[in-house]
Design a protein that fits this description.
The chain is mainly alpha-helical and 167 residues long. It has helices spanning 2-22, 26-46, 50-74, 86-113, 121-127, 130-138, 142-163. It folds into 2 domains: 2-113, NADH-ubiquinone/plastoquinone oxidoreductase chain 6, subunit NuoJ (Four Helix Bundle (Hemerythrin (Met), subunit A)); 129-167. The longest helix has 28 residues, at 86-113. 8% of the residues are buried.
Length: 167
């Protein structure tokens, strides 16, 4: 059952990744990117890394997508109003069913693992410790962490330069 769920999430991740590139509307592309990030967070949960899954959702699916949508709105790319087709309705139904399956699976997995609201030392030891992640982030992975911050700064400066173009 777990293998089937993995393949289902992998299929959704690949399809939403393709939609990120193929979408003509930049807002639809950003929404597809959110779905890709959610699938990646699901993979983290399947690997017993809930802290990384939470960070994935908060940082990427939250903050970075808000930044991307903000840049789209600053650039005034806009969206064309399109008539709702049966394809978009069917896509919404399929996406909703997939999200429901993910929620049911994760709820069932939490009950099987015995983590029903009880967190003790054994659970923390089996899942990982935030202090260890923080220590590794600021010692072994300090250079990639700083490069990422500089990359985000350059992206913000690029967005400001693009919005200051002469009319």
């Amino acid at each position: 059952m777990e293998t089937l769920f993995f393949y289902l999430v992998a299929l959704v991740a690949v399809v939403s990744g393709i939609l990120v590139v193929k979408a003509k509307n930049p807002v639809n592309s950003a929404i597809s990117l959110v779905m890709t990030f959610v699938c990646l967070a699901t993979f983290y949960v399947m690997l017993n890394a809930p802290f990384m899954a939470a960070i994935q959702i908060m940082v990427y699916a939250g903050a970075i997508i808000v930044l991307i949508i903000f840049v789209i709105m600053l650039l005034n790319l806009g969206t064309d109003v399109q008539i709702r087709t049966s394809h978009s309705v069917a896509g919404g139904v399929v996406a909703s069913a997939l999200v429901l399956l993910q929620v049911l699976y994760l709820l069932g997995r939490g009950q099987v693992a015995g983590v029903q609201g009880k967190i003790d030392a054994a659970v923390v030891e089996s899942v990982g410790h935030t202090e260890l992640i923080g220590t590794a982030l600021f010692t072994e992975f300090l250079l990639p962490f700083e490069i990422t911050s500089i990359l985000l700064l350059v992206a913000i400066i690029g967005a400001v330069v693009l919005t200051k173009r002469t009319v």
